[in-house]
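The record is given unchanged here:
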Amino acid sequence: MMIRRLVPFFCLISFVVRSQTVSLNDLSAFKTSTANWSIAGDVTVDVNQTNVLTTTPGKGVLACIQLPGKAGLAYNLLTNFEHGDADVEVEFMMAKGSNSGIYLQGRYEIQLFDSWGAKELHVYDVGSIYERWDEARPSGTKGYEGHVPRIDAGKAPGLWQKMKISFQAPRFDAAGKKIANAKMLKVELNGIILHENVELFGPNRSSIDGEVAKGPLMFQGDHGSVAFRNLVIKSFVR
């Protein structure tokens, strides 16, 4: 444990920093999972076939093999632990054509996608802050407030990639009223900064319930096959 002191304009604020390497020797760090999630020693991707990821026995890799025809929130994976302000580091590998995401507090998604070779970036491409969604809005505008990354920093499917996220949780007063929005302070992919100081006015599409001071990490598992390893989270407690 270490203490980090941040000096804003007029005051000194101390944070206790708790760093946790999440064990991927089994699924005990996560809430009840469905059959699409497993622990593996390694994974490989067939770059000639869409959404094909193969595991080998062992420990250290969290693998999701999308089940055909199976979609919905039940196939996502949530951590047992919850976080507020946090830095998250993780490596991931996409199957060809795959789609996934990392949700801070289960609510604010950084998009994972096989964007290799994309000529124009969209809110569904890798590293995007995914859009919010409102069925009551007119057709073509239901998705809104998404943020496209500055650059396509993604690697080809079958290669390990590294994501680093610095997240500031929403703030609430003593009565539970939100007084400040969440922020993505920095999102970095493969050593390249994609976003800085992006304010999040509410949860993204496919999130869990309304905003909270603390929530779990969530990994999307119903859109495509993907693998994760070396998951580290640093929580900042005021």
Confidence is low (pLDDT under 50) at residues 1-12. The chain is about 0% helix and 50% strand. The longest strand covers residues 53-64. The chain has one domain: 12-131+143-237.
